[in-house]
Every structure is written in C-alpha cells, then in structure tokens.
C-alpha cells in the first residue's frame, strides 16, 4: 500500500510521485482518461483541461490547467459518475455553511449536487466536501472534495494560479489540483501510473500527453 507517499497533480499540470515529476498536456474540450483502478469497486479517473483569457478578446494564456475531474464507476461502484468542475469566482465573500453548495467548484454524484459536509454513498464509500476558513481564492474559499473507497482515497482541491504575481491573474487561473492519498500500486493502470513509473512500457497514448498540443498536430 502507498499510505505515506501520495501522488499529486498540480498546476500546469505536473504530476509527482516518489520524487519524480512529469509535465503533461491536456486537451480542453474532452475528458482524458488518466487512471483505472481494478480494486473493489472498480472505477476510472479522467481530467479535462482548460484555459483562461488574460484580457477580453485575447488568446488563451494557458490551456493545460485541470478544469474538471470525473470519476466513472465500474463493477461494484455505488455511483455511475462523480464530476467536479471549477467555477468562476464570485465577486462577493462566501462563508462556508454545512449543507450548502460549494462556491469555487461544482461537484455532483449522478447529477445530484454535493454539499458541504460528509455523504455516504454506501457503507464503504464516502465523499467529504470542505471549505477552508483561512485560505482564499480571491474572495472565495479554497475547497476540497474527498472520495474514500476501500484501499483508495483521493482529494480534489480548488487552487489559484500561484505562478502569477498579479492577484487578479491568480484568481482567473483558478483550477483543480488532484491528490491520490492512498492506493494499491498493483491495481492502478493508465497514463498517470505510467508517468509515476508504476507501469511499463509507456503507451503511445501516454507519450502523446507528454507533447504540447501544437506538437501533436505536426
């Protein structure tokens, strides 16, 4: 089990595991399947990339932030689809309230909104949504959605674009970071485990993700 060393995907995005960092690139319009889990229950995790405009009418500054995460249930899963999308930050302060919707991201389970608090999807599968009291993205709160299954746990967090110095640009670059906190290395496959060095050889599909989008079209 990997309980002490988690795998993360942050920022541009860059995924890190066991001291290895790998930069990869995501298309904007469609979800890209990044990880398959063959435990009980089975499921897959996909990312969708996105961009933002520095000024109205200007070309996209960046296209590879994670703007949405989707978990699709397979055999034995008590859900069909969990989806988490980043939201535009509101112009007013939002105070986290138990039982209320998230404000920096929209999370759903089979189309039903995930509210702040704990939600049991089954006796063994739980989701937890939290809003930070002290950490902000502009006037909005930094928020997390966690998914805990037998032998596996992950957490998705709304984050600002810290690579920018301008606070307004940081808020415009709001995106999702994803942490895999606990998993069985023998049960994961797909592009992320290949980037982490857990699966060999690296597939053609994963190699394509390592190229900038413009290079793939050449």
Give a structural overview.
With 218 residues, the chain is mainly beta. It has one domain. It has helices at residues 167-172, 191-195, 204-209, 213-216, and strands at 7-10, 14-17, 20-23, 32-37, 43-53, 60-73, 81-86, 105-109, 112-113, 117-120, 126-137, 140-149, 152-159, 175-182, 188-189. The radius of gyration is 17 Å and the shape is globular. The model is unreliable at 54-62 (pLDDT under 50).
> Can you tell me the overall shape?
globular
Sheet with the most strands, sense and barrel status: 8 strands, antiparallel
Question: Whole-number radius of gyration?
Answer: 17 Å
Count of the domains: 1
Q: Compute the average pLDDT.
A: 87
Please count the helical segments: 4
Specify the helix fraction band.
under 10%
Distance between the termini: 41 Å
Oligomer: single chain
The parts where pLDDT drops under 50 for at least 5 residues are 54-62
The largest sheet has its strands arranged as 3-2-1-14-13-12-11-10
Order of helices and strands: EEEEEEEEEEEEEHEEHHH
Summed up, what is this model?
The chain is mostly beta strands. The chain has helices at 167-172, 191-195, 204-209, 213-216, and strands at residues 7-10, 14-17, 20-23, 32-37, 43-53, 60-73, 81-86, 105-109, 112-113, 117-120, 126-137, 140-149, 152-159, 175-182, 188-189. The protein has one domain.
Element layout with pairings:
Blueprint: E1 7-10, E2 14-17, E3 20-23, E4 32-37, E5 43-53, E6 60-73, E7 81-86, E8 105-109, E9 112-113, E10 117-120, E11 126-137, E12 140-149, E13 152-159, H1 167-172, E14 175-182, E15 188-189, H2 191-195, H3 204-209, H4 213-216
Antiparallel strand pairs: 1-2, 1-14, 2-3, 4-5, 4-15, 5-6, 6-7, 7-8, 8-9, 10-11, 11-12, 12-13, 13-14
């Amino acid at each position: 089990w990997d309980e002490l060393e988690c795998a993360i995907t942050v920022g541009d995005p860059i995924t890190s595991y066991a001291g290895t960092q790998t930069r990869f690139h995501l298309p904007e319009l469609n979800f890209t399947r990044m990880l398959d889990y063959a435990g009980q229950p089975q499921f897959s995790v996909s990312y969708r990339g996105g961009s933002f405009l520095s000024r109205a009418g200007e070309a996209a500054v960046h296209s590879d932030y994670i703007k949405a995460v989707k978990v699709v249930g397979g055999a034995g899963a008590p859900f069909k689809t969990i989806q988490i999308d980043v939201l535009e930050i509101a112009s007013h302060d939002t105070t986290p309230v138990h039982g209320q919707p998230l404000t920096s991201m929209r999370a759903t389970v089979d189309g039903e909104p995930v509210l702040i608090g704990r939600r049991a999807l089954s006796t063994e599968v739980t989701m937890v949504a939290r809003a930070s009291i002290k950490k902000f993205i502009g006037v909005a709160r930094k928020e997390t959605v966690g998914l805990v299954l037998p032998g596996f746990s992950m957490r998705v967090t709304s984050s600002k674009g810290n690579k920018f110095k301008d606070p307004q640009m940081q808020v415009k670059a709001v995106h999702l970071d994803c942490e895999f906190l606990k998993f069985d290395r023998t049960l994961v496959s797909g592009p992320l485990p290949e980037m982490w060095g857990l699966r060999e050889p690296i597939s053609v599909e994963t190699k394509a993700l390592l190229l900038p989008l413009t290079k793939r079209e050449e």
